[in-house]
């Protein structure tokens, strides 16, 4: 299994944020973690890393329903940034809305659509496949 140097959790709910962080750490597959509370904060943080020539996350766990910028707004803007490094994005949401599944397909993320709360075994499987 390949270890991930840097991952990013974009989640506004403190309980899900804490649970996801805990599980990511328990997998032992991620060395460093960035946590952002909404899409705008994540976009600004990641864009700053890119602009500075710093490594960007190899993995992003993205909630959809957040204040300021939701997950869709984040994706719309983030995917406009030219990035050479491979980034795997997983939508991690409580939404079971069919429209969200369809929209995920537009971003080629339908197979990367996880319903929260995520379980440790599921996260281990996801991370081992990256």
TrEMBL record:
Keyword Zinc (UniProt): no
GO biological process entries: phosphorelay signal transduction system
Pfam families: Response_reg
Modified residues (4-aspartylphosphate): 63
Keywords, alphabetical: Phosphoprotein
Record InterPro entries: CheY-like_superfamily, Sig_transdc_resp-reg_receiver, TCS_response_regulator
Domain (Response regulatory) ranges: 6-130
Top-level taxon of the source organism: Bacteria
Protein name per UniProt: Transcriptional regulator
């Amino acid at each position: 299994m390949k270890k991930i140097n840097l991952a990013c959790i974009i989640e506004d709910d403190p309980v899900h944020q804490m649970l996801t962080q805990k599980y990511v750490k328990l997998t032992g597959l991620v060395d460093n973690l960035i946590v952002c509370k909404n899409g705008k904060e994540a976009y600004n943080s990641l864009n700053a890393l890119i602009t500075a020539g710093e490594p960007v996350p190899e993995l992003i766990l993205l909630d959809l329903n957040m204040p300021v910028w939701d997950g869709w707004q984040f994706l719309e803007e983030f995917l406009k940034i030219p990035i050479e490094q491979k980034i795997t994005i997983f939508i991690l949401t409580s939404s079971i809305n069919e429209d969200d599944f369809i929209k995920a397909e537009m971003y080629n993320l339908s197979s990367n659509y996880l319903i929260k709360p995520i379980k440790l075994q599921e996260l281990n499987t996801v991370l081992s496949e990256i």
